[in-house]
Amino acid sequence: MLSKQQLKWFEDLSQLDGVSGHERNVAVYLHEAYEAMGYDVFYDNLGSIMAHKPSKNKDAKKVMVLAHMDEIGFLVKDILPTGVLKMHPVGGWFDQTLLAHRVHVHTRDNSIYKGTIGSIPPHMLTPKERLKPMTIDQMIVDVGAEDKDAVLKMGIQIGDMIVVQGPFEVLNEHRLLGKAFDNRYGCVMGLDLLDSLKDVELDYDLYVGASVQEEVGLRGAQTMTHLINPDYAIVLDCSPANDAIDAKALGQLGKGVLIRMMDGSMIADKELIYELVDVCKDHDIPHQFYYSNGGTDAGIVHKTQDGVKTVTCCVVARNIHTSSSILDTRDYINAKSAIIKLLDKRNDLV
Q1: Which CATH superfamily hosts domain 4-71+179-349?
Q2: Checking DSSP bridges between strand 49-53 and strand 40-43, what pairing results, if any?
Q3: Active-site residues: which are they?
């Protein structure tokens, strides 16, 4: 079971709006939390954020734990004369998950307007039209404005962030429902690790933080890894669970931290995978093997400079890339246990 603090981090961070390229709200929250724990904080020029826990050892090795703070969403693409907005997708959406969902539209002056993704009532569609899925380019966002002039007076302009909303809910003892668990899970984990290690002396310099623009090409991970040039990296992310219908499917809620062997952006270093599996077995930490066609920030981290030893410590959630993901808190707890043990082993290796 999560602590009150862990639950608060999950709710606070997942409810913040931060589409790729517009992550400032998340960065501000993390910055304040890192500083409150006593850590130095710095950024790269794209906006990725990092907390630093220096070692007392001279010429210490560098270990980086990296999540990403952006979520998928939309930008305002156009404002129609009728006062509705057209959307441009940011990140990977499945069109059928969107109609009639409520949204926030963020403006330059930090105003937030509520609205909805418009849906045509079924009795206004022909039988043939009902059989055709509506695509994003056909959808509109309605913020209640009477015309284009009213929208402009609200301060909404082309390029503003649109975020699909989903309230945070504790479904039961083990499962949470909410938006943006991909990858505010990793942001929560970063805070949790820093809190657990703040009074622990390490033989290496520890960097814990979150990148920008992962969902559109691992961009912040590239710049932040280049800036730090770590010797070893742990990448945190939330991957798709496939077990809602098939209990034997790859990626199951409650079955533990992922042993991510290969995905679309990285073939895992076998020695690091063996180490992660050994850690889990030695400490009775539930774990599951996983493959994916997608990718994580590890895909760019491991290729930076002359190469970085990189391993992922991910969990799964159902319905990722929607506003209604479901995550199992036991997976979170087990992932944290595995990461702490991996970090302990770094002391033995430097």
Answers
A1: Zn peptidases (3.40.630.10)
A2: antiparallel
A3: 214
Copy the structure tokens of residue 89: 């997708």
Distance of CA 54 to the CA centre of its chain: 26
Q: What residue segments make up the domains of the chain, in order of their start?
A: 4-71+179-349, 74-164
Three-state secondary structure call for residue 222: helix
Output the six-digit token pair for 314. 């991910």
212: left (phi > 0), else alpha (psi -120 to 50), else beta? beta
DSSP-assigned letters across all residues of 322-349: SS-EEEEHHHHHHHHHHHHHHHHHHHHH
At 81 the pLDDT is 98
**pLDDT at residue 350 tops 60:** no
CA distance 276 to 264: 20
Alpha helix segments (H runs only) across 51-138: 127-130
- The CATH number of 74-164 is which of 3.10.200.10, 1.10.150.40, 3.10.310.10, 2.40.30.40? 2.40.30.40
More confidently predicted of 187 and 134: 187
CB 69, CB 26: distance < 8 Å: yes
Question: For the chain, what percentages of helix, strand and coil (3-state, to nearest 5) are there?
Answer: 30, 25, 40
**What pLDDT digit, counting tens, does each position of 79-104 carry?**
999 999 999 999 999 999 999 999 99
